[in-house]
Structure formats: structure tokens, C-alpha cells
Amino acid sequence: MLALVKKPHIELSLQGENVDEPIEWISKKYDVNILSSDKDDSISIEETDFWKEMQSNRIGNLLVAARLKANLSQSQLAQKLGIRQNMISDYERGKRRLTADMAKRIAETLNVKVERFS
Asked: Are residues 54 and 97 in the same domain?
């Protein structure tokens, strides 16, 4: 059985007899989703709605992750780049295309490889 506890984020894989008991106990305190109760229920991550949504705005999601890892707000990153905060928001939401020059500037500012944004 594969279970997901949303907050705090915990993933559990339980096998064998009586796996329902610990899940029931955990469910009393946390919101639990059973992702699969049978190995035959497994699907490739590429087939999930989550994956498809993440891939639809891959560059924006990578930008958000790199910015958060650098512990910067959108405003702080925009200030370092000399642009408006709403431009960062547009890049992250996929509303504005990231040019090669801006990708390079952002990569340098966030100390990540520019290839991450291509």
C-alpha cells in the first residue's frame, strides 16, 4: 500500500498483513490519501495529472524552485535583476517567455546552470 500524508508531507510504503491498522492510526491525526493499495494499480508518473501540469509550465516551475532555494521573493529577485516584480510572476506562471539573455541573467543571479531554463 502506498499512502501520502499531505501535511507534514510523508510518503509511506507498507507491505504485508494488517497494513490498514497503521494507516487508520495515522489518519486520526493527519489527512491521508491512499495512492495505491495494489501493485497492479501503479501508473507511470508521466501519466498523472500532476506531471502533465508540471510539464506544461516546466520553465516557470524550475524558476520558482530555484528562486525559493535562493530564499528570495519575487520582488527581491526582480530588484537584483533590475526588472519589475510582475515580470518574475509572468515568467513563473508561463505568461511570458524567458529569453536566452534573461535566462542567463537569472541563472547567474540564482547561481544555477543556465541549461536549467532551456
From this structure: yes
pLDDT band at 25 (very low <50, low <70, confident <90, very high): confident
Instruction: Give Cβ neighbours of residue 59 (< 8 Å, ≥ 6 apart).
Output: 91, 94, 98, 117
Rounded CA-CA distance 118/82 in Å is 22
Q: What is the residue range of 11's domain? A: 2-39
CA distance 80 to 60: 18
41 confidence band (pLDDT: 50, 70, 90): low
Report the distance separating Cα 110 and Cα 89, nearest Å: 16
pLDDT at 4 over 80: no
Q: State what percent of residues in the chain have pLDDT above 70.
A: 86
Domain-located, residue 24: yes
Compute CA 2 distance to the chain's CA centroid, rounded to the nearest angstrom: 20
Instruction: Look up the CATH number of the domain holding residue 89.
Output: 1.10.260.40
